[in-house]
Amino acid sequence: HGASGVVLARQSSAAIAGGTFHNDVVCVGALETLFFHDLAFEDTAATKAAIRAAAGDRFEPIFVEVSSADLPLADAISSYLFNSMLVRIPGEDRLTLICPTETRDNARSHAVAEALAASNGPIGKVEYVDVRQSMRNGGGPACLRLRVALTETELTATNPAMQMTDELHARLSIWAANWYRDTLTPADLADPALLDESRGALDELTSILELGAGFYPFQRVGE
């Protein structure tokens, strides 16, 4: 690390051996807080020291560590506790941990999560959300974690037609109901009608989101 403030921390070999190939299964952070399992890093003390040094006088890092005694690695993985989202909700001083329902359904992870919310630490609330549909399609809770903070000026420069509202949600729901097939077989992939159908769906979607003419190559005249 250095002036850039970047810390490259080695993931724990024990966690990797236990099936934790991605660090987001055992660690999540937001603002000054880093929430992690005690097997997340190869050298926890050195990692924390490096983060403190990189933070310098800009902020004081807050570390929330969960022990293997309270939550064995296998439970951390199966409950998705650290695959959660850690956010600060406007108007609230403490962070909210948004967990999948798997965290609530695992007795050990549920106890850890509730203890965090009951403490005086940086995490003041835990919410549970059902994201099983995402996971059945190969994406765990961390796949929903993308967060882009925009200033008011940056927000006004974005495409307003792509900002989620009740109206847009309704239009997208109707679009999906009209276009998404209930089943798709290998034989369908050889049917030119599927290509036409897919292009029709994209034509309507780009119109709803006001992405402009010719967003996709097939929409451009002469291509």
Features:
223 residues; 3-stranded mixed sheet
Compute the separation of the termini in Å: 48 Å
Tertiary shape: globular
Rg: 22 Å
Helix/strand order: HEEHEHEEHHEHHHH
When the domains are counted, the total is 2
Helix % is 25-40%
Report the sheet-strand fraction: 5-15%
Per DSSP E runs of 2 or more residues, the count of β-strands stands at 6
Sheet having the most strands: 3 strands, mixed
Oligomerization: single chain
Average residue-wise pLDDT: 86
Uncertain segments of ≥5 residues (pLDDT<50)? none
**Class by alpha and beta content:** alpha/beta
Number of helices: 9
Strand order of the largest sheet: 1-2-3
Write the layout of secondary structure elements.
Blueprint: H1 13-17, E1 27-30, E2 33-37, H2 44-55, E3 62-66, H3 73-79, E4 85-87, E5 95-100, H4 101-105, H5 107-118, E6 123-129, H6 132-136, H7 152-156, H8 166-179, H9 192-208
Helix pairs in contact: 8-9
